[in-house]
Design brief:
Elements (H helix, E strand, L loop, with lengths): L1 H28 L12 E3 L1 E4 L2 E15 L2 E5 L4 E4 L10 E2 L4 E5 L2 H28 L1 H12 L16 H9 L2 H16 L2 E3 L4 E6 L6 E2 L4 E6 L4 E8 L11 E6 L5 E9 L9 E8 L9 E18 L8 E6 L2 E6 L1 E5 L3 E5 L6 E3 L12 E3 L7 E2 L1
Parallel strand pairs: 1-22, 2-23
Antiparallel strand pairs: 2-21, 3-12, 3-16, 4-11, 5-7, 5-10, 6-9, 7-8, 9-11, 12-15, 13-14, 13-16, 14-15, 16-20, 17-18, 19-20
Helix pairs in contact: 2-3, 2-5
Length: 378
C-alpha cells in the first residue's frame, strides 16, 4: 500500500515537471509577427512651368504731400482784419477769395496823397506843353482824363522825342510816377488772396492780431493733387521711367489708388544710396499726411517664373515631381520680394510644387492632387 502511494506520488511529480517544461516550450516556440508600418504617400499640389516675362515690382512707401502748397507770410505790418470767412484750419477757399486782409488805412491815405501830387504836377505842365510841345499835348490831356485817383494809375504816355522826355523828367514826373507804382505794389501786399482752390491747413493768427513783417500766418494747400515721395534703391535708377503707372495701397489695404511717376531725382542720397521718385495721385478720399505703400514696376525679367519664397531651398534648388517621385533641380533666383522670388533656368513644361510639403526630400513618393485644372506657373 505504501509502495503504491509512493509510485503515484512519483508519477504525479513527473507529470507536473513535464507540464512545466511543455508549457515553457510552447511559450518559447510561439512567435508574434511584427506589424508592418503602412507607407504614407503625401498628396502634393503641383503646377506646370511656363516661362514668360515677369514684372519686377519694387515696393516703397511714404506720406502724401500736397503738390501745390503755399506758406503764407506777411510782408507788411498791421492789424489782421476780419474777413468773410474765418481764418481757421479746414476752411475752404476758392481761387481769388481773400485769405488775409491787414488794415492798410494809413498806408492807403499815403498812396492817395502821392497820386494827388502826381496829378497836380502833370496839370501844372499842361500850359507849357500847349505852347512849346503842341504835338504831344493831346496824349497828356488824355492821360489826365483817364486818371482816377481811386484806381491804379494808368501807364504814362509813350514819349516820342528826347525833348519831350527831358522836359517830363526834368519836372520830376517820372520819379513821382514810379514812386507811386512802388507804393501801389506794397499796398497790394496788405491783402492776400487764394492762388487756387484749396483748404487752409494751418492758421497762426486770428482776427485782431498785430501782424509783423516777415511773420508766418499759415499754410494753404490744394486738395486735388498729391505727391508721394519714395526712396528707391539705386539699382533701379536706370529702370524707372517718368510716366510709369504705379499702384498705391493705403496702410490698412482697404483701398487701392492709381498714381503716376512724375519726377525722379537725378542725385543718389549719399547716406542711404537711394534715389527719390515722386508719384502723383488724385482722389477725393486722399488727405495730406496719409501713409501709402507703392508698387513700382521697375522692369520685366524675360524667360522667368515667379514662385512663393517658401518653395526655394537655401541651396537654390526647388522640388519637381517626376513619375510621382520628388526630385531637386538647381535654379537661378534673380529677384526677391517679401513673399515671392523670381527664378530663371527652370525648364518649360516641368512639374513643380506650388505649395510646400513638410518633410519633403528627393526620392519621396508623392501623389499628385488631381482636382487642379490646368494651372501653369508663369
Amino acid at each position: 500500500m505504501n509502495s503504491r502511494k509512493i509510485a503515484l506520488s512519483i508519477i504525479g511529480g513527473l507529470l507536473i515537471i513535464g507540464s512545466f517544461f511543455g508549457a515553457k516550450y510552447i511559450i518559447n516556440s510561439k512567435t508574434t509577427p511584427k506589424p508592418r508600418p503602412e507607407k504614407v504617400v503625401k498628396t502634393v499640389v503641383v503646377e506646370k512651368v511656363k516661362n514668360g516675362n515677369i514684372p519686377i515690382i519694387v515696393p516703397a512707401n511714404g506720406n502724401l504731400v500736397a503738390k501745390r502748397r503755399v506758406e503764407l507770410f506777411s510782408e507788411v505790418q498791421g492789424v489782421f482784419k476780419a474777413g468773410n470767412k474765418l481764418f481757421k484750419p479746414g476752411q475752404e477757399y476758392r481761387a481769388g477769395e481773400i485769405l488775409i486782409r491787414i488794415d492798410a488805412a494809413e498806408y492807403y491815405a499815403n498812396v492817395q496823397s502821392s497820386k494827388s501830387n502826381l496829378y497836380n504836377l502833370i496839370t501844372s505842365i499842361m500850359p507849357d506843353l500847349r505852347l512849346d510841345y503842341p504835338e504831344v499835348f493831346n496824349k497828356w490831356q488824355t492821360f489826365l482824363a483817364n486818371f482816377d485817383i481811386n484806381k491804379s494809375i494808368p501807364p504814362l504816355p509813350e514819349m516820342s522825342s528826347d525833348k519831350e522826355k527831358y522836359f517830363i523828367s526834368g519836372r520830376g514826373i517820372l520819379t513821382s510816377y514810379y514812386t507811386i507804382k512802388n507804393l501801389e505794389q506794397r499796398l497790394a501786399k496788405y491783402t492776400i488772396a487764394a492762388p487756387f482752390n484749396g483748404v487752409l491747413t494751418e492758421a497762426l493768427v486770428t482776427e485782431g492780431t498785430l501782424v509783423r513783417s516777415g511773420q508766418k500766418l499759415g499754410e494753404f494747400i490744394n486738395t486735388n493733387d498729391f505727391e508721394l515721395e519714395v526712396a528707391i534703391s539705386k539699382t533701379y535708377s536706370d529702370l524707372l521711367n517718368v510716366g510709369e503707372v504705379v499702384e498705391l495701397k493705403s496702410i490698412d489695404r482697404n483701398k487701392t489708388y492709381q498714381g503716376r511717376v512724375t519726377r525722379i531725382n537725378g542725385r543718389v542720397d549719399l547716406a542711404s544710396q537711394t534715389i527719390t521718385a515722386f508719384i502723383e495721385v488724385k482722389d477725393p478720399d486722399l488727405r495730406e499726411g496719409m501713409y501709402l505703400e507703392a508698387h513700382l514696376k521697375a522692369k520685366e525679367e524675360p524667360n522667368a517664373i515667379e514662385i512663393n519664397r517658401s518653395l526655394l531651398l537655401e541651396t537654390e534648388q526647388i522640388f519637381v515631381v517626376r513619375d510621382s517621385v520628388l526630385d531637386l533641380i538647381p535654379v537661378k533666383p534673380v529677384y526677391f520680394s517679401d513673399n515671392s522670388v523670381v527664378l530663371k533656368d527652370v525648364p518649360d513644361g516641368i512639374t513643380i510644387l506650388s505649395k510646400p510639403v513638410m518633410g519633403a526630400y528627393a526620392g519621396m513618393l508623392v501623389k499628385v492632387f488631381n482636382d487642379q485644372g490646368t494651372n501653369t506657373k508663369e
